[in-house]
Amino acid sequence: MIALASLRERWRSLLGTLLTLAVAVAVLTVCGLLLVSARPVAPDRYAASPVLIRPVPPAAPEAFTEPRPWPKEQAEALAVRLAAVPGVSAAVPVHRFYAQVLRSGSPVAGERDAYNWSAAALGGHVLAAGRAPAGSGEVVLGNALGVPVGARGELLTAAGPEQFTVTGTVAGAGIWVADEVARARGGGVPLIGLLTSADADADSDDDSAAAGVAAAATAVVGADGVVLAGDARGAAEPVGDARTRWIGMQVLSALSALGLFVSVFIVASTFAFATRQRERELGLLRLLGALPRQVRRWVLGEVVLLGLFGGAVGAPVGLLAAGPVARWLVRTGFEPASFIVLYQPGVPVAAMAAGVLVALVGAWAAARRAARVGPLAALRTAALDDRPVTLLRLLAGGATLAAAVAAGVAATRASGADLGTYALYAAMALVTAGSLLAPVLLPPAVRLLTAPFARGRGATVLLVRQHVATAARRSAAAAAPVLLCVAFTVLIGGMVQTTTAYYGLNRVTAANAAAVVVPDGTPGLSDAAVGAAGGRSALPTTLYDGVEPLPAAGITPAEHVLLTVSVGSLTALHRPWAAGRPDVAGPAEQAGPGVGSALPAGSGPERSAGPVVPVAVAEGFAASAGWVTGSTHPVFGPDGRPITLEVVAVLAGRPLPAGILLDRAAVRAMDPSALTTVVYSGQPVPESALAGTGARPLSAAAYAASGQDEDDRLVWVFTALLIAVSAGFGLLAVVNTMLMSTTGRAGDLRVLKLSGATRGQVLGLLAAETAVVVVTGAALGLAVAVAALAALARGLSAQLGVAVPMVIPWGTLAATVGVCLVLAVAAAMLPALGSGRATGPPASV
């Protein structure tokens, strides 16, 4: 009851803390609901198939690579056995290849794959008009594409634009061709769908019937695949959707972690400041006989009540916001279109509990300090901080500073995603260290900042200096949220711009060309686009060591000028294959001739020698995998057929398109749907030469500076989210701290007025002191961000081998400091405007 009465009396001073906790609980509720909802969903194209069979996936699903497909012959033999399972009416192997409808020469967004017509039944699709496709050049389209029966148009395939005639339409979206066409154009088989008989297990429900079919299918499939039924069919979602969902989970996890850190930081600094202002009140309690544990229990009781109030406000807000946020994540590309929110009642309860825990963690040190306040010491009315920093606080600040240095050193030596992680850890440790050591750092920093103005005749500078020096804890509490706000907004924005500069330099180094051709509305470049562009390129694909993916790429002799041979020779890279391999027969539309017809069907995961394929491997890959020139390695091709790789060269230097390089024609024969990522040309490419191919030209400089691709867009949206969370929490704390600070100094302001200062002079002094504290806190925050960014830039420079500039987002810095300054001054002025009407003795002298 005492804690509740105390909260009623001080609700204005703790309003900002309450809002901070409410926002934190709302953010945790939203992120928690979205995280538990982020589960794979079976694609609509398989909605009518209760049981799906897919090849064995890789051990590391975050590789976002399709499982090694079955060779066509093996899949068809397996489908025959599955069709004999009781309750199965049909077992349909899925054949697919890249295809995109062209309209007025531009690719239509949406469907990017064509399937065999028999697979349409797996999604419950039936003809709405027309007839099924019967031969080459005939397609059935979903009516969502808006192309009527009988219309002629163009499909963009891996070979290039091709004419087609629409023979039928179905409801929804999709592209289907005749079974024999899809079989010839596709590579391996990625999935087999089962359709069950209408009278199968008539006495049981659909789920139990599917479970019975799945159990029987598992016995048939054995080690050759994985049987999926029920919710497990979500594992068949496209790799692109899985990658998008993974990105969304990283975003939500980062927002949750940042929200927790910032809210704990702000609550800790706010309660430490509030407890410091209440030392006289606490001393009276001690004088009346209160024990230290009773004082501590009282302070923590207030905190628990505040956390519960914040949770009661934040949890409903989070529940209401989850739906709109989920739809926004889908629109921005952080979640696949199949994403929906699952409202779990445990999530808001857990978020409320986390809010109370955050409040307790943040206020624990303040409660301990309050319990140690002696009665006589607390009753002193002077505002002088005789011990602005305790030994424990000094040691903690030194420890976090050492941790920040260690994280910064680790960042300079890390690679990949670890670089940014260590830089963020360094910033968090530096922010914590800066907050702990602020009472020591702030007075000399203020003296340095105000030195150019100290020769004036007025007393404002002197008073500002003295107020900061005599009330170092109060000033540090006001500067801490500014430090946090500036540090994280500058760091996050700078990390994105610095890494963008890195990738730009990496692109320029790799290009070494006058022009670049990139996809325009397509997932990659067709052979027709590559031929029109000329220049150098690589055709990416995936080989498989058992079921584990091995990134590879096909090249021509033109790309040899970009390669540095460490051991061996590239002359053998493009020789005809051994083991009776016929010469590669040409484009994908002839798929069937070439490699595919010469490879054995295979009967499972066992490896056979297969044709011998000469390859060159990157030095790093060779060292890690133990591959040397002359060695042979049995693997599986992208079509699921066994082959044997013979290492003819080891390549030094970087960058390389993949760890394994082989003949481009070999890749095309095994992977008819492979698409080129980019083409580097020695001369400008006219746009007219690329018309209708889903490609556009860029200069090398424009490509290096390009921030328009999908990954860059997602990164910038992610950056805006992180900045909004960190800045939003920080600004709440700035306003709250300034309100509390000015309210606690009402007596000081009255003394100034009694000493002859005018109302304008008092407000001017208050504004000047607030501005100095904000600018000093911003300077410390900038120093934190610069230190972390310097470590990041150094690590990137070591990776690339050229100097990567550290980019400071000056615009973001100016905007953040400006907003902090305006809000802080306004929050400081608001209580002071009414101080002249207040009565009573001064609080301090």
TrEMBL record:
<feature type="transmembrane region" description="Helical">
    <location>
        <begin position="346"/>
        <end position="367"/>
    </location>
</feature>
<feature type="domain" description="ABC3 transporter permease C-terminal">
    <location>
        <begin position="254"/>
        <end position="374"/>
    </location>
</feature>
<protein>
    <recommendedName>
        <fullName>ABC3 transporter permease C-terminal domain-containing protein</fullName>
    </recommendedName>
</protein>
<feature type="transmembrane region" description="Helical">
    <location>
        <begin position="303"/>
        <end position="326"/>
    </location>
</feature>
<keyword id="KW-1003">Cell membrane</keyword>
<keyword id="KW-0812">Transmembrane</keyword>
<dbReference type="InterPro" id="IPR003838">
    <property type="entry name" value="ABC3_permease_C"/>
</dbReference>
<dbReference type="GO" id="GO:0005886">
    <property type="term" value="C:plasma membrane"/>
</dbReference>
<dbReference type="InterPro" id="IPR050250">
    <property type="entry name" value="Macrolide_Exporter_MacB"/>
</dbReference>
<dbReference type="GO" id="GO:0022857">
    <property type="term" value="F:transmembrane transporter activity"/>
</dbReference>
<feature type="domain" description="ABC3 transporter permease C-terminal">
    <location>
        <begin position="722"/>
        <end position="834"/>
    </location>
</feature>
<feature type="transmembrane region" description="Helical">
    <location>
        <begin position="714"/>
        <end position="741"/>
    </location>
</feature>
<keyword id="KW-0472">Membrane</keyword>
<keyword id="KW-1133">Transmembrane helix</keyword>
<comment type="similarity">
    <text>Belongs to the ABC-4 integral membrane protein family.</text>
</comment>
<feature type="transmembrane region" description="Helical">
    <location>
        <begin position="762"/>
        <end position="793"/>
    </location>
</feature>
<feature type="transmembrane region" description="Helical">
    <location>
        <begin position="475"/>
        <end position="496"/>
    </location>
</feature>
<feature type="transmembrane region" description="Helical">
    <location>
        <begin position="251"/>
        <end position="274"/>
    </location>
</feature>
<feature type="region of interest" description="Disordered">
    <location>
        <begin position="581"/>
        <end position="606"/>
    </location>
</feature>
<feature type="transmembrane region" description="Helical">
    <location>
        <begin position="422"/>
        <end position="442"/>
    </location>
</feature>
<dbReference type="Pfam" id="PF02687">
    <property type="entry name" value="FtsX"/>
</dbReference>
<feature type="transmembrane region" description="Helical">
    <location>
        <begin position="388"/>
        <end position="410"/>
    </location>
</feature>
<feature type="transmembrane region" description="Helical">
    <location>
        <begin position="813"/>
        <end position="833"/>
    </location>
</feature>
